[in-house]
Amino acid sequence: MARGKLRIYLGAAPGVGKTYAMLSEAHRRVERGTDCVVAFVEHHDRPRTEVMLHGLEQVPRRELEHRGSVFTEMDVDAVLERAPAVALVDELAHTNVPGSRNDKRWQDVEELLAAGIDVVSTVNIQHLESLGDVVESITGVRQRETVPDEVVRRADQIELVDMSPQALRRRMAHGNIYKSDKVDAALSNYFRPGNLTALRELALLWVADRVDEYLTEYRSEHRVSKIWGSRERIVVGLTGGPEGRTLIRRAARLAEKGAGGEVMAVYIARSDGLTSASPKELAVQRTLVEDLGGTFHHVVGDDIPASLLDFARGVNATQIVLGSSRRKTWQYVFGPGVGTTVARESGPDLDVHIVTHEEVAKGRGLPVARGARLGRSRIIWGWLVGVLGPVVLALLLNTMDLGLANDMLLFLTVTVAAALLGGLYPALASAAFGTLLLNYYYTPPLHRLTIADPKNIVAIAIFVGVAVSVASVVDLAARRTHQAARLRAESEILSFLAGSVLRGETSLEALLERVRETFSMESVALLERESDVDPWTCAGSVGPESSARPEDADVDMPVGDHMALALSGRVLPASDRRVLAAFAAQAAVVLDRQRLQHEAAQAKELAEGNRIRTALLAAVSHDLRTPLAGIKAAVSSLRSEDVEWSEEDRAELLEGIEDGADRLDHLVGNLLDMSRLQTGTVTPLIREIDLDEVVPMALGGVPEDSVELEIPESLPMVAVDAGLLERAVANLVENAVKYSPADERVLVSASAIADRVEVRVVDRGPGVPDEAKDRIFAPFQRYGDAPRGAGVGLGLAVARGFAEAMAGTLNAEDTPGGGLTMVLTLRAVDRRPDLATTPSGAERQVPC
After folding, report:
1. Phi-psi bin for 4: left (phi > 0), alpha (psi -120 to 50), beta?
2. According to its UniProt record, where is this protein mainly located (predicted)?
């Protein structure tokens, strides 16, 4: 029996229309005469989805009892017995109730597919197992129900059901997804615009990757070598030379001109590992291409043009970017060059761009370290074997007669041993000395440095040639091995350095300490001076007794005209100065960055101080003067002897004095709180408390019946300072009441999400546009046409400052239906959930 086919409708979030699309497809198939049944579809009381079930045959569900409750699940046996052509199975990631045939619904689907039944199912992107951590970091909700990625990947068809976050939130607000009593909570939590946008991007990228995989698989199965320009893929050929940066930037500009352009930088290395490319430059180019959104690839191949073209065709590239050759004119006698060969063999479906650069025709040679690299002990042993070995061997061979051929092989063995130990020169000495001994003792006429038989002359010549060749190869291999080890160490150091530069993590002292450890120095200092005649000053140093002048150090590395890195301890070889130069340049950059950060911080403090002082003067000149003037006028009136005030008038004047004093107390309190926040003297006393102990106390400053309070008793405790929390909530509530209509009550609610608790203060006032939501938290800011007498604009600034002092956050959001919602997020210290809320519907008991 042939296996059934699986079709999946994939969505970014609940409510985008996956089930509706699946049912629409079922109606189309039924109209075409296909035997299609509903094995399990959950409409979640959504009227439009429920209507789509009419006219479709539904297989009765199986009822299961668990912990005193009855649940319904898909009856796999009934579906298998019915044996339809197509079965609709909703919510692929669903966990079955204990006692079911399988633990997961996708396992039920596997049984249906194995029985030859085609299945149409639905799943949300957040339920894919590999994306669980990503989704939790975005939404704060850990998905308990997941499906292995491989199950979805194996689907014969995946159709994305897409909807913009704005349209989905409108559907939610209209009641098309959840019931009206859950709309506000859903819009404020899981269905935030940021959450929906991130989930939508995950879904689009996941489907795009699957499409790319299908295309690659199809091209491989059908052996399609021709380029299909489904989207622009630009391959940049790198040589490790300095021109690579120019090529990468040019390729990035080409990719930006087309939708979905992709840059892929590739470096072709020889299979023997012998290369003159600069590891430092390759590391820089790798970082550059990744910063520009591309990828870096390292490919091994001896035929560079063929390897480059194979890579480009393998990734379905449409363009190749190469640099003009750095070879000099006379070097073209060895061949046409990589660029010319690639352009000639690329074919009509692959464009090749040859980009000019500053290194054209300057030569391809890069500095290669030379000199003895085998170590003193090995060289000494090589000379001993090369000089004494032939003598000892000759003494041994004089006691026996093995023949000239065997004698030569034994002398050749000694020469190879000398090459392995000491390199080229001991091997050459061994070959020369062995030749003389072979001629003197073993080639007629004996005991004379002449050779009578011409055949022996050829044999000795071959011996010398083989000995020299073997010695050269061994010596070259030893040098290359040392070079590879050294370049690897350099690349690791420079990779660390480049990473620290990108992250901006390394301080000057840490960088200098790294230099000291890398080069085994006693002390390292970064020296600078204003001009050529000024004395040197130390910008930073590590180690004891660092040098005060570059000329006093064992090693000095200039950095520009008036800065130098001074190292004391030992003299470095010239080959180490390349890495040291990179460290020196980075040290100068780190010093400049630290100074700029310090100056920026000082400038910010000065600007903030000036702004606050200016605003404070304005507040004192008007906002504090107004209640003072009212108090003074009321007191003067009461003290006047010319007027007889009635009891009612006196009470009204006294009430005005009391109101003015309250306003002064509130304004001065906010000013003092803001001053404490600005000077960093707010020290919260954090302890674990229940919100219902603090929030009601913060409502004393607002009129009765102006606030509706919803604080569930099941909320976890929060780690806060009770006094700071009370002041923060009081300021938020007063601000909300101030801007709310008289007939609308302010809602203060709290809910637990992941490891935090959110306190939401919801008003139905005029609201605040997105571009002003951050500005309203700045000190001395009023939004819109708020009257001057309404305060000095410190309430929200103080509330946010107190929230951040308690390791919390305070942000503003739009209230669904109009208004502004202040969201105060606090850290939860205890979780006591009784129910698990799934993003796909209402609360339900979790079977366990």
Report:
1. beta
2. membrane
Cα(725)–Cα(391) distance, rounded to whole angstroms?
A: 94
Task: Report the C-alpha gap between 40 and 42 in whole angstroms.
Answer: 7
The pLDDT tens digits for 379-393 are 888 888 888 888 888
Furthest CA-CA distance within the chain? 153
Q: Are 202 and 134 in contact (CB under 8 A)?
A: yes
- Are 729 and 803 within 8 A, CB to CB? no
- Is the distance from CB of 789 to CB of 714 less than 8 angstroms? no
Least confident segment among 76-80, 563-567, 614-618: 614-618
In 561-593, which positions are buried (b, 16+ CB within 10 angstroms) versus exposed (e)?
A: eebbbbbbbeebeeeeeebbebbbbbbbebbee
> pLDDT at position 28, please?
93
How far is 783 from 167, CA to CA, in rounded Å? 29
Whether 305 and 342 have beta carbons less than 8 Å apart is answered as: yes
Is residue 797 within 8 Å of 778, Cβ to Cβ?
yes
For Cα atoms 796, 797, 803, give the angle at the middle one, nearest 5 degrees: 85
Pairing status of strand 6-11 against strand 69-73: unpaired
Spatial CB neighbours of 354, under 8 Å, sequence gap ≥ 6: 322, 323, 324, 339, 343
Structure tokens at 627: 């209640």
Contact partners, residue 636, CB within 8 Å, separation at least 6: none
188 or 746: which leads in pLDDT: 746
CB 93 within 8 A of CB 123: yes
Alpha-carbon gap, residue 764 to 97, rounded angstroms:
43
pLDDT of residue 608: 64
**88 - beta bridge partners?**
38, 120
Separation between Cα atoms, residue 187 and residue 173, nearest integer Å: 8
3-class state of residue 236 by DSSP: strand
Residues with Cβ within 8 Å of residue 738, at least 6 apart in sequence: 790
CB distance 829 to 656 below 8 Å: no
Cα separation, 664 vs 87, in Å, equals 72
pLDDT at 635: 84
Compute the distance between CA of residue 674 and CA of residue 668 in angstroms, rounded to an integer.
10
What span, in angstroms and rounded, lies between the C-alpha atoms of 591 and 510?
A: 12
CB-based contact 532:511 (threshold 8 Å): no
Q: What is the distance between the terminal CA atoms of the chain, rounded to a whole angstrom?
A: 36
**Would you say the C-alpha torsion 79, 85, 90, 91 has a positive or negative sign?**
positive
CA gap 253, 257 in Å, rounded: 7
Residue 393 belongs to what H/E stretch? helix 376-397
DSSP-based three-state secondary structure for 299 = strand
Which pair of structure tokens corresponds to residue 436? 């003389």
Tokens of residue 642, six digits: 């010319």
Return the SS3 of 566.
Answer: strand
The strand pair at 820-827 and 809-814 is best described as antiparallel
Query: What percentage of the chain carries pLDDT values higher than 70?
Result: 77
Do the beta carbons of residue 272 and residue 346 sit within 8 Å?
no
Q: Classify residue 828 as exposed, middle or buried by CB count within 10 Å of its CB (0-12, 13-18, 19+).
A: buried
When pLDDT is averaged across residues 833-838 and rounded to a whole number, the result is 40
Q: If pLDDT is split at 50, 70 and 90, which confidence band does 118 have?
A: very high
Residue 488 identity: R
- CB-based contact 66:847 (threshold 8 Å): yes
Buried b (16+ CB within 10 A) or exposed e, 655-675: ebbeebeebbebbeebbebbe
Structure tokens at 475: 């010596």
pTM of the model: 0.38
The residue with greater pLDDT, 344 or 460, is 344
Beta strands 523-528; 537-542: pairing state: antiparallel
